[in-house]
Amino acid sequence: MSKYIVRNNGPLKGQINISGSKNAVLPLMAASLLTSEKCEIYDTPALRDVDVMCSILRRIGGNVQFDKESNCVEIETQEIIYNGADTELASRMRASILVMGPLLARTGRATIALPGGCAIGARPIDLHLKGFEAMGVKIWEKHQDGFDYVEAEVDKLKGCDIYLDFPSVGATENLMTTAVLAEGITTIQNAAEEPEIVDLANFLNKMGARVKGAGTDTIRIEGVKTLHGTRHNVIPDRIETGTFMLAAAITRGSIRLNNAVASHVKPLTAKLRECGAEVVEEDDAIIVNAEGKKLVSTNLKTLPYPGFPTDLQSPFMSLLITTEGRGTVIETVFENRFMHIAELQKMGAQIDYSDRKAVITGNKNLRGAAVKATDLRAGAALVLAGLAAEGTTQVEQVYYIERGYENFVEKMSSVGADIEYIE
Ligand code: UD1
Question: What's the rounded Cα separation, in Å, for the pair 120 and 337?
């Protein structure tokens, strides 16, 4: 099993180019199913999750060419030959559910294997299904050969008003990609406002859709008859950006992040400044400077965008172990996103937690240990802790990290991190 060996090599210094966003590109790739014409998506990161989405689209009938050197994926689905995502592929990535909306819109049918819960929570899809039903889709759940499936069918999609009980990112995306070809107008209220939603709306509008209000809590979609192919550049990955901002802070280093959008990481910038780090925002770059600084603890609560992102909660917790004072972290988005705490405790962290609240006593000397990445972002948190620890940290199950960070080891090494990949 592959692992990283991480050693403290002092403050990280230098520049890193941020890749295209994983969470933005997956829904764009799924949305390409809405047309029989070719879609070209640039700045697509070479990641495992993107490979899985390529496989899902090929199984559906897409001609998918992913050039990892130029970071361009081309998708042309002239004909749908399979209306769904099967168990093998769906179990590899929860975002497989994102093909459901485009399939319903294009063919009126979809059968998706349910991947079930995962380390960070149960992650149901009730909000997606409720929205589909409001548009006239009939849904059946079935259990076959030990797996759960959801089958959906509709004659004619009808625009409607949808209120989401929670601003789910995936549900907002799935309902947008259905409504674009529905008859009439759909409004999604209490919609997710993440930058990835705005990127999806821009992509759909380039395809000929009429989507307004993305980035606010109300999205209005006027259905059109057909969509066409397009070209699009994916937005930079704000979670990768945040992870490297935290790498600068935890090593008391200084890193310039090129191709980063400062407005997408405002909550992290605010928290880092509260801790005493310097954050400089430029047009398409962010510089985090913590050199020679004594950082202090702070409190944070994860929330839907524009609140503090749940995906940066565990990396931020690693930082709080090294800052002066006591910090509190409250997780409100996922019900089980504290799996990394037990691993950080193996490294000497003092963290008391119950339910969704963790109290981190700072100023602790981290020491290297053998730890396991329990999910993608928890893996990044452990690498960050390893960069600040005495001795050697062995991070196992790094395939999680490779799901979401492009060239992670190379990028970390380029700013001076001592990190080695072992197959
Ligand atoms: C997306 C991101 C993930 C990020 C998350 C929250 C992708 C591929 N993944 O995941 O990195 O951590 O947003 O920012 O973009 N929920 C329900 N019912 C539903 C749907 C969601 O109860 O039908 C709950 C979930 O269990 C969770 C919360 O809503 O507790 C947020 O989930 P959601 O916003 O849907 O996250 P994802 O789209 O799965």
Answer: 5
- What CA–CA distance (Å, rounded) separates 419 from 423? 13
pLDDT tens-place string over residues 42-57: 999 999 999 999 999 9
* Ligand 1 centroid distance, CA of 220 (Å): 21
In this prediction, residue 117 carries a pLDDT of: 53
pLDDT tens figures, 283-320? 999 999 999 999 999 999 999 999 999 999 999 999 99
What is d(CA 289, CA 275) in angstroms, rounded to the nearest whole number?
A: 12
Residue among 190, 198, 238, 333 to mutate when testing ligand 1 (max atoms within 8 A of CB): 333
Q: How far is the CA of 172 from the centre of ligand 1 (A)?
A: 10
Buried (b) or exposed (e) across 147-163, using 16+ Cβ within 10 A? bebbebebeebbbbebe
Residue 72 catalytic? no
Q: Which residues line ligand 1 (CB under 6 A)?
A: 23, 26, 94-95, 121-128, 166, 168-171, 310-311, 333-334
Write down the pTM of the prediction: 0.97
